[in-house]
Amino acid sequence: MSNHQSANSNGTTPVKGKNRSSFLERNRDPLLKLKVGIGFVIALAFILPIIWMIFVSIKPNGFTTTDVIKWFTPPFTISNYVDILVDSLIIRWTFNSFIIALITTILTLIITSLAAFAFSQMKFRFKKTLFIFFLLGLMIPGEATIIPLYEIVKSLNLIDTYAGIILPGIASSLGVIILKSFFDGVPKEVIDSAIMDGCSKWKLFYKIVLPLAKPAVAAIGIFTFIGSWNNFLWPYLSILSEDLYTLPVGIPVFNATYSQAYVLPMTANAIASIPVIIAFLIFEKQIVKGISFTGIKG
């Protein structure tokens, strides 16, 4: 008993749970509950359309109602999903979107990283002038280049081909500018010591400079993939056959066939959303880091 009292008198007894909780309550953000509430409302506003889409997609084909509540009550069926997967080209369109987005992302990262390294670490004539052209490229909206771009692709006989969809999307002025700023931040002592040790330009690029820019490369890769996956205008203009449709092009064409119905278009949209949802769940941390990175560095 005396030991217990002496421990208390010396201040060595661990803090009780009650004291710990009161300490946290005294030091927590007074607006925390308000912030959490606002975040919850915003999240609910974003997720409600998805929930409604899922419930509509499992309704019997041809079901219509003016009562919103009836969309969330039985009867339910998954036969719509079977019909869409068997009778439509949505799986083919999903494959096209994935392949095009993946190849576009890989080629964009290769080209932008090499160009950024050249602007950052190499000396050549008209270097500053060429870099100004990259900066000016950010000021020109993509829609303004559609007609000349279409004429070039048509003259190369690339209309209605994978190459015709992919090649115009691999040049990224923003990617070059972001990576150049990261490469410029590599300590000069590291570059000089590598060169003195006989490191070639190529080894300097992929063994030293590029690994140090992984956050920037990851951010550019994520947003290039998302941009290619969601791209509508250029695939819509350059694709003629349904077998080459991407999801942003194929889904509106499919929905136009059922302009007076809800169920099948919602089923098609739900199926098209599944790969994106899975990708987000897998790469959630990378996507969030990419968003925060572009917000801080951009």
Structure keywords:
MetI-like fold, 0% strand, single chain, 298 residues, mainly alpha, 72% helix, disordered N terminus
Notes on the protein architecture:
It is a multi-pass membrane protein. Belongs to the binding-protein-dependent transport system permease family. It is found in: Cell membrane. The chain has about 300 residues and is mainly alpha-helical. The protein has 2 domains: about 15-85, no CATH class; about 85-295, MetI-like fold. Helices cover about 70% and strands about 0% of the residues. The chain has helices at about 1-10, 15-25, 30-55, 80-85, 90-120, 125-135, 145-155, 160-165, 175-185, 190-195, 200-210, 215-230, 235-240, 245-255, 265-280, 285-295. α12 (about 215-230) crosses α16 (about 285-295). The chain is globular and about 75 Å long. It starts with a helix and ends with a helix. Mean pLDDT is about 80; it is low at about 1-25.
Percent of sequence in beta strands: under 5%
Output the helix-strand order: HHHHHHHHHHHHHHHH
How many individual helices? Answer: 16
Helix content: over 70%
Largest sheet: none
CATH superfamily of the largest domain: MetI-like
What structural class do helix, strand and pairing data support? mainly alpha
Any idea of the CATH class of the largest domain?
Mainly Alpha
Give the strand tally: 0
Poorly predicted runs of 5 or more residues = 1-24
Number of domains: 2
Shape: globular
| Distance, first to last CA | 63 Å
> pLDDT average, as an integer?
82
The value of Rg in angstroms is 27 Å
CATH architecture of the largest domain: Orthogonal Bundle
Instruction: Kindly report the CATH topology of the largest domain.
Output: MetI-like fold
